Fold each of these.
Amino acid sequence: MRRTIAALTVAGAGAAFELSEVELDDPVDGEVLVRVEAVGMCHADLAARAGDFPFPLPGVVGHEGAGRVEAVGAGVTSVRPGDRVILTFDSCGRCDRCVSGTPTQCRDFVAHNFTNGARPGGSPTLWRAGAPIHGSFFGQSSFATFALAGQRNAVPVTGAAAELAPELLAPLGCGVQTGAGAVRGVVGVPPFGVTAALDVADLVNDSKHIVGIVEGASNPPVFLPRLAGLVASGACRRQGSSSRRSPPTTPRWCWSIIRSACTAGSGTSGCSSSSTTSRG
Ligand SMILES: [Zn+2]
Ligand SMILES: [Zn+2]
């Protein structure tokens, strides 16, 4: 079975995002269907749209989703329908690096997150007019009203964190996880108030280096709930006055938020518009 959804499709390299009706598979074994409530927009989405990222087009990108579980496939035990989840990067879960708790170093990371444009086994999840288009971007393709993820990359949040506004949860899935994980796990956590000086001359004379860190070297099922808990506790300050459900305000870590205006059920009849806000 497939359901009709609304998605921001990209026809080819350099094309604009286009709001389109597409069809999404129902979840198969190990998959989680998520009703997307908000997504962050990361540079990888824009690079993929520009054709500068190894993701095949036409397709649907989006890799910082937050929403509620709509349905689960057989064998899914980590979440149930109605659970609040953050969508993050995917990994195989079987290689030595995944098993040892470092899924950012998954030996099949690239295929699982972008080059396939489909499920790890190669079958498509998204269709338009009966023909497959590419999806499964970072195991989700969340620029849509619904997204299919695996139970490894649909991370549940509970308690006060589950009540946070979705636009606060979504960017935790990539951008915030990457920065916070890099500081916490790789650079080390400095005392509060420490200022790190970085001058371009330091880079030129080789006295300091900028080091790339994939997704904050994070293990999402462990790290994302902690991040969400920090936001819920107020420990992570942001612009705006409230961290609870309230009129949307954009936290300073969000470069851009796209909120779906589609609140209808499985169809797109309730989809009258979409909106994009961009700040920072
Ligand atoms: Zn990202
Ligand atoms: Zn792996």
Amino acid sequence: MVTFFIKTYGCLANVADSEGLARYLIDLGCAQVSQASEADLIMVNTCAIRDKAESKLYSYLGQFAPLKKQKPYIKIGIIGCVASYRKKELYQSFDHLSFVYGARDEMPVLQSYLVDAIEKIAVLKQLFFQDPDGDLGGKNGQDRDVKELVAKRNISKFLGGSPRGNALEEFLMEAVPSSTSPEKEQSLNISEYNLKKHIQDGMKKAQNNASPEVKRSYINIMTGCNKYCSYCIVPFTRGREISYPMKDIISAVIKDIEMGSREVTLIGQNVNSYIDPETEARFPELLKQVAQIPGEFWIRFISPHPQDMTHDLFDVMAQYRPKITAALHFPLQSGSNRILQLMNRNYTSQEFLEKIGWIREKLPGAAISTDIIVGFPGETEAEFLETMAVVEQVRFDLIYPFIYSSRPNTKASLIADNCLLVEKTRRLEFLRKRQIEIAVQCNSAHIGKNLKVLVEKRLARGKLLSRTEGNLRVLVDGSDDLIGQFVTVHIKETGPANMIGILVS
Ligand code: SF4
């Protein structure tokens, strides 16, 4: 049996893509393993959003060179956003790579490549273990050496000279893309995405988890983005927006609920731009339809864009609360209007705050999280303090703060940046420190309350991890039987990251 391992970097859209591929490979008869060293097929799903993530990827990839040398039959591939725009460099820099397929358009091409690759791996693995000379991998253990080796040796001696053997010889000779042919790979782009298949493949979590964990469903409702924020590489890696048919999304959710999912997260780069290609229904209608699916489960979505937030979204959320959880990820990015304009965010801090007011009015007690970029090119201390003023006013439950990272092809990468990294780091730490204080205060407001939570899994230190409707973490004592159950807990203590509760029901 061919074993596979997928390492996923980046956002939930990547998580959903990896899960879809895992499901696809399991359906093809492969087994998922938890260590790359045990896998015959290794895929790294990449994130291009920040320079740091990309650097991490390169050092991660380097460690597979000895593995490929040791086991030349394995295939190592790069997929996702970095693969979309660094294909040539990846092939040139890493001889041990067998394939590179970018996000979105190349996914169906990748799926058909995998069908062939799995059969090749199975045969090469067999040859490797039968090889009396032990030189299947050639001097560097690369696929190209395997190809040469198969060409110069009488492969039929391993395959019994059967017609099947001849077919396999041809099959092996076709081998894998070489480092000199990235252009050929690029020509494999397809124009049509097999949406239904992708959604259905992507909807189910691999079911061979060893430790019990709540079943969750991550469903891509759209992909790509038309916003072109000046700092963001996503429109270049995932392309323009494509929304998937609502009926396919609904049937994916129904199937997942039938299979035991207790939480469904609808994913898109900009979910409130969603528009059903068949009926032109918008995101609030999709949310309503999902909420009307029978069963006890929670619905979340990520991410909305503040510019596209409309009253009807909050009306639907209020109508179906708590099935649609009152938890919003609402990315601010900056509190300075000048910086927001440079970022091409299409809202002002005043408009952002106005929409926060809508949330507070229609969804009292809603948990709000956000992303903030500090040190955008040219950001002054005064502009950073404008961001802090919004933070003080909103009092977010959670902030994901980042230092600006210059990305290729983006407009922001052309803006002169005279702010030193040391200063950016100071701003980041200042924001982080203040947010911890705010989170402690926000969480302490829950002491003495009874809250409904969904129990997720057991943590290494023995407690059960559960989450509230607002996605806040609550640790409780209890048996594994509670995993996947909705229960009520009484909040006894709180800290910046976790609350401690006692089981009530
Ligand atoms: S909305 Fe902006 S930040 Fe988000 S994916 Fe689109 S371009 Fe990137």
